[in-house]
């Protein structure tokens, strides 16, 4: 079997025919180097948003199961068009290529329309293409469930498609081509002194992706880490080497903090006067049933000593859902008051070295305090420290922490 490299191209890399021509050259170059490319494509930039608006305008706005199925059928068409265009471009370069949709492999998923999880990827069609010296161009972002309905994997899901295919076929490497040159120590649009990392561990990248960095979809990192897929992030517009994901136990001497990231538009919800007999367990049972993730959480005994006061920070897009859920179950939970504050962001310091350097928390708090930034809530894990702060100080906090931990480029 030939040495397979999975190449995934995002929406900006295939935004128009000129850029599709550019990635055709990248694919051809890999072929000429003795590798066998298996290509995964997103929809052309802006296409998914346009299709989503069409679907919303056509429907009644009710998100019943049947409507979600049709939404997925519509949204998946963007990748279908792009796969065909890329295949045509490669054919014009004298290469054998053909497009594949999810059902033609197939890529099997569960039936969670709009955010489906991959169950399996069949390899036979890909191996057959390789044996016939044919480059498969696979539509990302989509799968097929047991009812033979098209599913989509959520925004950014083509990354997940690429990682899953790479794991399934035992690829030498999975290259994720984007419009950035790799993984930076911070968002370079905010921190001008941010620099590209030549390598980053899977756990660190998973934290960054989950906390707001938009370079990779978190599920793609989970798959790469679970199946030890060598994964590289690089640009389709430059010739830089990009950033390679590595195992955690690979030594990176001297690095305590790897990167700073932020999760914008967060909301703090305070629930006061919860009876001690009820506790917060009732709320989290409800959250689990409704698939709600809480970013930060704290609870304290209230002033009158017979109740709990709970505070949580979560992403703004689910805050109204959580608020409505809590109001609907007020009698069951038994709280006295609920309040919301919607001017927060979460700033996170991420690095494998965090777990072995106890002074990192102190340095984070001191750096923010010296800039006059109050921390609303703090959470910690082995490789990250996250602070909820007022949104107006987000950029100042990012730059200050980036400098404090020695991440600024020279």
Describe this structure in words.
This protein is of the alpha/beta class and 410 residues long. The protein has two domains: 4-179, Carbamate kinase, CATH 3.40.1160.10; 259-404, VC0802-like, CATH 3.30.2130. It is built from 13 helices and 18 strands. It has helices at residues 17-32, 47-58, 65-75, 77-92, 124-131, 157-169, 202-211, 218-226, 281-289, 316-328, 330-333, 359-370, 394-404, and strands spanning 4-9, 36-41, 97-100, 107-109, 118-121, 135-139, 142-144, 150-152, 173-178, 199-201, 231-235, 243-246, 259-275, 296-301, 307-315, 337-350, 375-380, 384-390. It has an eight-stranded mixed β-sheet with strand order 3-6-2-1-9-11-12-10, with helices on both faces. The protein has a six-stranded antiparallel β-sheet with strand order 14-15-13-16-18-17. The chain has a two-stranded antiparallel ribbon with strand order 4-5. The radius of gyration is 23 Å and the shape is globular. The model has no long low-confidence stretch (mean pLDDT 91).
Shape: globular
Q: How many domains, in number, for the residues? A: 2
Mean pLDDT, to the nearest integer, reads: 91
Strand order of the largest sheet: 3-6-2-1-9-11-12-10
**Amount of helix:** 25-40%
Which structural class matches the secondary elements? Answer: alpha/beta
Give me the number of helical elements: 13
CATH architecture of the largest domain: 3-Layer(aba) Sandwich
Number of strands: 18
β-strand amount: 25-35%
Instruction: Give a short account of the largest sheet.
Output: 8 strands, mixed
Task: State the name of the first-level CATH class of the largest domain.
Answer: Alpha Beta
CATH homologous superfamily grouping of the largest domain? Acetylglutamate kinase-like
Distance between the termini: 45 Å
Based on CA atoms alone, the radius of gyration comes out at 23 Å
Oligomerization category of the chains in this entry: single chain
Low-confidence stretches: none
């Amino acid at each position: 079997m030939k040495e397979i490299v999975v190449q995934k191209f995002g929406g900006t890399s295939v935004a128009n025919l000129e850029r599709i021509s550019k990635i055709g050259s990248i694919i051809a170059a890999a072929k000429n180097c003795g590798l066998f490319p298996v290509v995964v494509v997103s929809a052309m930039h802006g296409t998914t948003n346009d299709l989503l608006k069409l679907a919303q305008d056509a429907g009644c706005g009710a998100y019943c199961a049947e409507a979600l199925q049709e939404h997925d059928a519509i949204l998946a068409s963007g990748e279908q068009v792009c796969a065909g265009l890329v295949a045509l471009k490669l054919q014009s370069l004298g290469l054998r290529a053909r497009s594949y949709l999810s059902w033609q492999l197939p890529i099997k998923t569960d039936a969670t329309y709009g955010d489906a999880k991959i169950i399996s990827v069949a390899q036979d069609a890909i191996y057959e293409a390789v044996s016939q010296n044919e480059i498969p161009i696979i539509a990302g972002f989509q799968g097929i469930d047991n009812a033979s309905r098209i599913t989509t994997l959520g925004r950014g899901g083509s990354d997940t498609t690429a990682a899953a295919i790479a794991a399934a076929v035992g690829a030498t490497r999975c290259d994720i081509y984007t419009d950035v040159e790799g993984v930076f120590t911070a968002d370079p649009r905010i921190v001008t002194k941010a620099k590209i990392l030549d390598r980053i561990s899977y756990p660190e990248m998973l934290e960054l992706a989950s906390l707001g960095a938009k370079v990779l979809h978190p599920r793609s990192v989970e798959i790469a880490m679970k199946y030890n897929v060598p994964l590289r992030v690089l640009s389709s517009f430059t010739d830089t080497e990009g950033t390679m994901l590595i195992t955690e136990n690979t030594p990176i001497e001297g690095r305590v903090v790897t990167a700073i990231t932020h999760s914008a538009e967060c909301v703090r919800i305070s629930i006061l006067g919860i009876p001690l007999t009820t506790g917060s367990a009732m709320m989290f049972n409800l959250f689990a049933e409704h698939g709600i993730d809480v970013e930060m959480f704290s609870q304290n005994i209230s002033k009158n000593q017979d109740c709990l006061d709970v505070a949580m920070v979560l992403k703004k897009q689910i805050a109204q859902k959580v608020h409505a859920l809590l109001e609907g179950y007020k009698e069951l939970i038994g709280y006295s008051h609920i309040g919301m504050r919607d001017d927060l962001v979460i700033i996170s310091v991420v690095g494998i070295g965090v777990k072995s350097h106890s002074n990192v928390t102190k340095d984070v708090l001191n750096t923010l305090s010296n800039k006059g930034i109050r921390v609303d809530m703090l959470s910690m894990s082995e490789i990250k420290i996250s602070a909820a702060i007022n949104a107006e100080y987000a950029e100042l906090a990012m730059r200050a922490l980036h400098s404090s931990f020695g991440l600024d480029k020279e």
